[in-house]
Amino acid sequence: MLNPVHPINVLILTPYVTVLKETPEMNTTGIDQIMIPQELFLMLGLISLVENVLVVAAIIKNRNLHCPMYYFICCLAVSDLLVSVGNVAETMFMLLTEHRLLIVTAKMLQHLDNVIDIMICTSVVSSLSFLCTIAADRYITIFYALRYHSIMTTRRAVSIIVAVWMVSISSSSLFIVYHTYNAAIACLVTFFGLTLVFTAVLYLHMFNLAHVHSRHIMALHKGRRQATSMKGAITITILLGVFIICWGPFFLHLILILTCPTSSYCSYYFSHFNIFLILIICNSLIDPLIYAYRSQELRKTLKELVFCSCCFVI
C-alpha cells in the first residue's frame, strides 16, 4: 500500500523496515522518519520530467545525434524519465487523496504501488546496464576506431537496447513479486556492485592506454575522432560518478537491511530514507544538465526546442 509518509516507497518492501510503509500513527518500530514536504518531491519530479523529455526529443530531432552512443544516452534519459514519472504520479496521487479529492480502494492503491515500484526498479537496472553499455561503446570507439562502425552497427545497437529493456522489465517484475525474500535484495545489490566494478575496470584501462598512446594517436588523421571519443568517455564517467553519489546511499540502505536490520545505528540510517529518495530524483534532474554541458550539438538542439516551446506558449 502507498506510504503516506513519503511519495515514493521504492523497492523497500521488506518486513525489516515496515516503518517505511506506515503512517506516523502506525509506526511501532520507533524509527522516526525525516519528513520532507511532498511539494518538494513534486517540484523536483516535474523539473526532471521536463528536462528528460527535452533530451529525448532533442536526440530524436537532430540527425547528427543518430548514432549508437546517443541512442544509449537517449535510453539513459528514458530510465531517468521513469523515476520522474513515478515520482510525479505517486505524489499527485498522495496529494489528491490527502485532500480528499480522490477516493480509492486499498486494492487500487496496491496496484499503483506495484506499478510504480516496477518502474523505479526498471529505472535503476536499465540505468546501470546502459552506463555499462556506453562504457563498452566508448572503449570500442577508442581502441577499435577503424572497426567501430562494423562492430557497433545501428542494428546491433538496437538489439542491445531491446535486450536491456526486456531484461530490466522482467527482472524488476520478479524482484517486486519476491520482494519479501532477502535473496532478491541481495541480487540487486550484487548487480549494482558488479556493474560498478566492470565499468571502473573498463575506464581505468581506457584512460591509461589512451594516455600512453595519445601522442601516436594525435599524429594520425584520427586525432579529432579520438578527442571526441575521449570527451564522450569523460562525459559518461561524470554520469557514473553522479549515479554513484545519488544512488549510493540507497544501496547502502539495502545492504544494511540485509546485515543489521534491528541495530539502533542502522535504524538511525533508515530514518534518512526520504533524503535518499530526494537524491535519487536529483540524479534524474542532474543527468540532462550533464548531457547539455558536455555536448555542444545536443545543447544547440535543446535551445531550439526550448525556444520553440516558449514561442508556442506565447
From TrEMBL:
It is a multi-pass membrane protein. GO terms for biological process: regulation of gene expression. The keyword Zinc does not apply. It is found in: Cell membrane. One of its GO terms (molecular function) is melanocyte-stimulating hormone receptor activity. Pfam families: 7tm_1. One of its GO terms (cellular component) is plasma membrane. PROSITE patterns: G_PROTEIN_RECEP_F1_1, G_PROTEIN_RECEP_F1_2. The chain crosses the membrane at residues 40-60, 69-95, 115-136, 157-177, 183-212, 233-257, 269-293. Its main location: membrane. Keywords: Cell membrane, G-protein coupled receptor, Glycoprotein, Membrane, Receptor, Transducer, Transmembrane, Transmembrane helix. Residues 51-291 form the G-protein coupled receptors family 1 profile domain. Coiled coil: none annotated. Belongs to the G-protein coupled receptor 1 family. Receptor for MSH (alpha, beta and gamma) and ACTH. The activity of this receptor is mediated by G proteins which activate adenylate cyclase. This is Melanocyte-stimulating hormone receptor. It comes from Electrophorus electricus. The lineage of its organism: Eukaryota, Metazoa, Chordata, Craniata, Vertebrata.
